[in-house]
Specification:
By secondary structure, the chain is an alpha/beta fold. It has eleven helices and 14 strands. Helices cover about 30% and strands about 20% of the residues. It is elongated, with a radius of gyration of 21 Å. Strand 12 (about 290-295), helix 10 and strand 13 form a beta-alpha-beta unit. The chain starts with 6 loop residues before the first strand and ends in a 25-residue tail after the last strand. The strands form three sheets. Strands 3-4-5-6-9-10-11-12-13-14 form a ten-stranded mixed sheet, sandwiched between helices. The longest helix is centred in the middle third of the chain and has 15 residues, at about 200-215. Bound molecules: S-adenosyl-L-homocysteine (SAH) and iron/sulfur cluster. S-adenosyl-L-homocysteine (SAH) binds near residues 151, 193, 322, 324 and 368.
Length: about 375
């Protein structure tokens, strides 16, 4: 018996599926059925694709094709409803994906729509309709990360490898299935803010976005990608016909500080990042999100806040402040609530919309910068 290499269908687009089914002598509409089964119905295996004939399924399998969602190796559930999934791929490499149920508060709505104009953030609820579920899924784009930001636990893993488009999409489908989500009824936001730097795995990331929009049906307006500032890819991203909102991890108010916190600043400094932002074709009413992790006594002074105001002059950006989420071997401290508030007030007084990002799943190492395959729970005592 001949053995075939395993060829994964998840990750292929409509055009590629068309070529494939035509090569098997099947009509093109079979490709559309397959596309629908993979991305919209979220079928976890070839066998489950009931709208394809048995013989076509058998022939695909014979040729070595399969479709598989990644496996859930572990689930960690937080007291706030956040779930951190340790997700395993076929080569045993793992990443994390986080499910964050959203409440009804305006502050939480801010978390939902990082790219939307701040004034549009009022919560809309229609009385009488069946409750639709709302959640945000935080997706990984690489296993580990090479960027080495000093405050981030993912950095400690180093880069393990890029994820394929199918592996990026697979994380989302897996979590949607786990929560029996119905796109259309439920409101799902995606943030590409898990492990890895999406713009260092650009093509797979963009392909995953296209499949999730066109196949799964999640609108691009409900997606946000965060980059540590890979400048050439910011320009490429601006030219994409389908693209999420853009968040940029600023994290420092001058180059000396940023270089210390994010070594990548030596390659692309603040001036280069802000120039790329100025040249970026924002859509009408769209804002950049500038993320700023506050580290006590390091980048959280009033002077730092005033520097941020000056940097952002003329850029349509709002700022998401994130008080450091602590972790082992992270040499920084979380600022006090007063320091965070004072920083935020300076930005607001200067006319910059500034929000505080609520940490989610802190007790299970699910919050920003904590994704490092930790298996233990955090002692909150
Ligand atoms: N690699 C991308 C996206 C993932 S990180 C990027 O860096 O932008 C998502 C956000 O978490 C970034 O804004 C990053 O600055 C922030 N972050 C990293 N470590 C953190 C920590 N320990 N506490 C709070 N936020 C952190
Ligand atoms: Fe990588 Fe982002 Fe962590 Fe920096 S903050 S090490 S870019 S995941």
């Amino acid at each position: 018996m001949t053995t075939h290499p395993q060829l994964e269908l998840l990750g292929l687009n409509n055009q590629e599926l068309t070529l494939l089914v035509e090569s098997l002598g099947e009509p093109a509409f079979r490709a559309r059925q397959l596309f629908d089964a993979l991305y919209r119905q979220r079928c976890p295996a070839l066998d489950g694709i009931s709208n394809l004939s048995k013989s076509l399924r058998a022939r695909l399998a014979e040729q070595g094709y399969r479709t598989s969602l990644p496996a859930i190796e572990q689930r960690f559930v937080s007291f706030d409803g956040t779930v951190r999934y340790l997700v395993r791929f076929s080569d045993a490499q793992t990443v994390e994906t986080v499910w964050m149920p959203d409440g009804d508060g305006v502050e939480e709505t801010e978390d939902l729509l990082p790219g939307a104009a701040p004034r549009q953030l009022a919560v809309r609820r229609t009385a009488g309709n069946p409750p639709s579920r709302r959640a945000t899924i935080c997706v990984s784009s690489q296993s580990g990360c090479a960027v080495n930001c000093q405050f981030c636990m993912t950095a400690q893993l180093g880069l393990q490898r890029n994820l394929t488009a199918g592996e990026i999409v697979g994380q989302v489908l897996l979590v949607l299935n786990d929560h029996q989500i119905k796109i259309g009824r439920d409101r799902i936001n995606l943030v590409f803010m898990g492990q890895g730097e999406p713009f260092l795995n650009y093509e797979n990331f963009i392909r995953a976005v296209q499949l999730l929009v066109q196949g799964t049906g999640i609108p691009e307006s409900r997606m946000t990608v965060s980059t540590s500032g890979i400048v050439p890819r910011i320009a490429d991203f601006g030219r994409e016909p389908i693209r999420p909102h853009l968040a940029i991890s600023l994290n420092a108010s001058n180059d000396v500080l940023r270089e210390r916190l994010m070594p990548i600043n030596r390659k692309w400094n603040l001036a280069a990042i802000l120039e790329a932002a100025r040249g970026f074709p924002l859509r009408s009413r769209e804002y950049f999100t500038m993320e700023y992790v506050l580290l006590s006594g390091v980048n959280d002074s009033a002077e730092n806040a005033h520097e941020v105001v000056a940097l952002l002059h003329g850029i349509r950006a709002k700022v998401n402040l994130i008080a450091l989420n602590p972790g082992p071997e992270i040499a920084f401290q979380t600022p006090t609530a007063q320091a965070v508030d004072a920083f935020q007030q300076i930005l607001i007084a200067a006319g910059i919309p500034a929000y505080l990002r609520r940490p989610r799943g802190l007790d299970i190492y699910a919050a920003c910068g904590q994704l490092k395959r930790s298996t233990g729970l955090v002692s909150l005592g």
